[in-house]
């Protein structure tokens, strides 16, 4: 466990110095050092691994079997009733999101298993569902986790010109209504991701404005295109051949829209809320954030519904986003216990640990934030 976390700050500093003109004040990172020791001791004393366990493996089995059943039922027209198929399409969208939250997310962070090849397989579940784990690791693991809520660096707060997530982003007259139409636009985010953003990053070589895409190796190019073709075959070509274009289009749009709303809302509630901090670096030179990296993560990240076992199971622990940002190499199945340690350490160092008691509370805060940012100067 210690080897998984000991070089985390150093790793982040290397990423910052090599990719963007922002750095954190990690010289006296006393908080994270103390926290890491306690977390290491938890795993050592209980003789358990920080990676996934039977809970995660059984959840993976349930989610994958559910996906295969729903997909097969739809393309074979197992149920002759239109309303049943609409419901199944919605469930398929939720199922796709749940696999992303639980299986892909842990795999892409290397926390699903102690075996690298298992993590790679689980991470590549995203490729089957239309994304690219290579692009995800650059966008999420590096850009988002290192530069959380930093304008021009964190691609997760760049939702295009129709949504203003940061006060330093260009302001349009329509933004004053974004708290009204924002949820509707979220429904298109999954399709936008599958059919546009991956390709944009691929051909431009940029993760975000200030974060370049790592040069792809030959086998990574092959995997990227092969998986895109496989996804188009499974979710576009085959359904059209078996169901006809109109039925396919209606069903696929429902899947994409449902999955888009679920994925977007869950990720937004952890960072794009009133209590989270946002940062604007100096575009002309080096900017030093006057906080150690771990404290900055606590300032920019919020937990929600920590006592809901149902949401924790379905969302892959993403309602414990603070824990995930501090310890991305720990599987989400351990988050509830690790949260107790983080809360205790935050109290010792007088550091705020932001939490919404319910998902609804976080959602309302997100909508208020959209409204305020849409009208802010």
Description of the structure:
- The chain has a two-stranded parallel ribbon with strand order 1-4. The protein has a two-stranded antiparallel ribbon with strand order 2-3.
- It has helices spanning 2-5, 8-19, 30-46, 54-75, 82-109, 116-123, 125-128, 133-146, 178-186, 189-204, 218-243, 245-271, 293-300, 309-314, 321-326, 335-348, 359-375; strands at residues 22-24, 206-208, 211-212, 287-289, 303-304, 355-356.
- With 377 residues, it is mainly α.
- Helix 5 runs antiparallel to helix 6.
- The chain is globular and about 60 Å long.
- The protein contains 17 helices and six strands.
- A hairpin with a 2-residue loop joins strand 2 and strand 3 (211-212).
- The longest helix has 28 residues, at 82-109.
- The protein has one domain.
Q: How many β strands by DSSP?
A: 6
Query: Number of helix segments?
Result: 17
What is the molecular shape?
globular
**Could you describe the largest sheet, including whether it forms a barrel?**
2 strands, parallel
Give the CA-CA distance, first to last residue.
Answer: 46 Å
Helix content: 55-70%
Flag low-confidence runs.
2-20
Strands of the biggest beta sheet: in what spatial order? 1-4
Query: How does the helix and strand content classify structurally?
Result: mainly alpha
Overall pLDDT: 90
Radius of gyration: 21 Å
């Amino acid at each position: 466990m210690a080897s998984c976390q000991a070089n985390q700050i150093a790793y982040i500093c290397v990423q910052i110095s090599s990719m963007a003109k922002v750095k954190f004040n990690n010289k006296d990172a006393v908080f994270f050092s103390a926290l890491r020791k306690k977390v290491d001791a938890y795993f050592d004393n209980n003789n358990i691994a920080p990676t996934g366990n039977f809970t995660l493996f059984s959840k993976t089995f349930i989610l994958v079997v559910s996906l295969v059943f729903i997909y097969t039922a739809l393309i074979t027209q197992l149920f002759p009733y239109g309303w049943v198929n609409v419901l199944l399409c919605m469930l398929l969208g939720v199922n796709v999101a749940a696999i992303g939250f639980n299986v892909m997310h842990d795999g892409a962070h290397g926390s699903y298993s102690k075996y690298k090849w298992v993590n790679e397989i689980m991470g590549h579940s995203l490729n089957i569902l239309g994304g690219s784990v290579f692009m995800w690791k650059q966008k999420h693991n590096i850009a988002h986790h290192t530069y959380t809520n930093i304008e021009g660096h964190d691609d997760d707060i760049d939702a295009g010109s129709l949504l203003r997530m940061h006060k330093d982003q260009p302001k349009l007259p329509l933004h004053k209504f974004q708290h009204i139409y924002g949820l509707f636009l979220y429904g298109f985010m999954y399709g936008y991701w599958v059919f546009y953003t991956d390709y944009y990053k691929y051909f431009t070589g940029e993760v975000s404005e200030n974060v370049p895409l790592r040069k792809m190796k030959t086998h990574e190019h092959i995997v990227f295109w092969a998986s895109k073709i496989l996804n188009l075959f499974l979710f576009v070509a085959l359904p059209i051949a078996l169901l006809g274009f109109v039925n396919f289009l209606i069903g696929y749009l429902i899947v994409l829209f449902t999955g888009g709303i679920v994925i977007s809302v869950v990720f937004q509630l952890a960072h794009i809320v009133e209590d989270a901090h946002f940062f604007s670096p100096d575009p002309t030179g080096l900017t030093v954030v006057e906080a150690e990296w771990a404290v900055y993560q606590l300032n920019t990240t919020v937990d929600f519904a920590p006592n809901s076992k149902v949401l924790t199971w379905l969302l892959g622990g993403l309602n414990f986003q603070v824990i995930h940002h501090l310890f991305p190499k720990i599987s989400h199945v351990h988050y509830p216990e690790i949260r107790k340690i983080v809360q205790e350490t935050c109290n010792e160092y007088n550091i705020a640990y932001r939490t919404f008691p319910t998902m609804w509370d976080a959602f309302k805060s997100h909508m208020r934030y959209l409204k305020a940012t849409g009208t802010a100067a």
